[in-house]
Records
---
Amino acid sequence: MTVITPLCHSSDTLEKHQECLKKQREAVKYRLKKLAARQSEIAKKSSVIRESIIRKYQEIQAVLDEDLRITLSHLEMEERAAISALDGLMEKNCSLIQEIEQDLARLSVTLDQTDTEPDTMVIKLDVARVVDLLNRTDPISVSLDEVKADQILSLTNNMLLLICSQTPIIKNLIKSYSSEVCLDPETAHPKLIISPKGDSATYTNTWQQLPDLPGRFDTTLNVISLQGYSFGRHYWEIDVTGKTYWELGVTYPTIPRKGTTEDCWLGRGDESWCVEFFDGEYTAWHGGVPHQLPFTRRFCQIGVLCNFPAGLVTFFEADKMTPLFSFCAGTFTDCLHLALCPGHDHNGTNSKPIVICNAQSRTSDFGLVAPQKSI
């Protein structure tokens, strides 16, 4: 006997599957809605922060403008007083000239009418009158308060120095996140020479006889820091002066280190983020995706900021803190290490080391995790 499976059983299964798919669709739609709401929330928060900062800068400018107005009004008042005083002295001199002209006219008439000698007493009085006026109208008697002016200039210069010491504000803020690191020689490719202090890596064409440790890069010219960080904000500056090729960034300790797999290169896999300088061009890398950067000038120092709360890795031109590129990872899934690649020497054009510019150590309370010697 042939048993026929009821169609209702198959229909029930399909209906359940259909209902499951509908629930999944609704869950994804709800997540999409939440993501859009979060996007809008972040945009609004960013706008509020931006407007608040703009207002503060405007308030600073208003304070400076008002102080400048008051200072100039004082100087203008003193200038007007001095000019007015000189006008008065000049008027007295003009009046005396008119009197002398009148006396000369009268004397000329008298001389024409008589041959007698003029009254010597009158002449003596005229001379005394002139001497007295000249003494009372000495230009040196009227002057600006130059000592006060010098004090104003000194105070404004001090204000300028203070402002310069506090700006760029972002530079001072980011530098406050500086964390000291040193390179782990046990991770360095055998063609890299790591300085005794662990603050520089130099390419050598000689393959050094080093232990083939599990954590050592054997193909890519990489080295990572001994220290790793799991939370907080951390900033490093790397000196790349005189180099024509380099790569630098941050990486999880799980980055592949053996063989020719592309993920061993910084930024080519999901474990690392980097900026590369090669052949005069800057490129940001993560997950194997290149981002060409619109810069042509050869920078001397590159800043790297790792921001765990925001899930950001940001690269800067360190002198003026000009942002080069920022990666948003959302949430980091592991601790991060500084990673460097000084590159080949390129026939001597890239022989200089890549150097970490360490700041005073602040790592004890800022997410430092135990050094990891290998993956």
---
Amino acid sequence: MSVTQQYLLDTYRAAQHGEPAPPAPGAHDWQVVREVRDYGRFNAVVRERPARGRVRAAVLRYFRVLRGGGARTPRPLP
């Protein structure tokens, strides 16, 4: 059964019982995305890690290693 079929069945049952219709599929997707982001930030703070910029820093580290620039070599003395 697809999501649309389940929604239509739930709407029909709600109408038969005089209850309010359930929310349409996808109505609260952005709210869920925000809550997942906030949960990740909360866990980062609890684990004493930076709450912002973690993904960008990880991607930059990954590409730096791929380019071979992960570790800097000291400059030669004059």
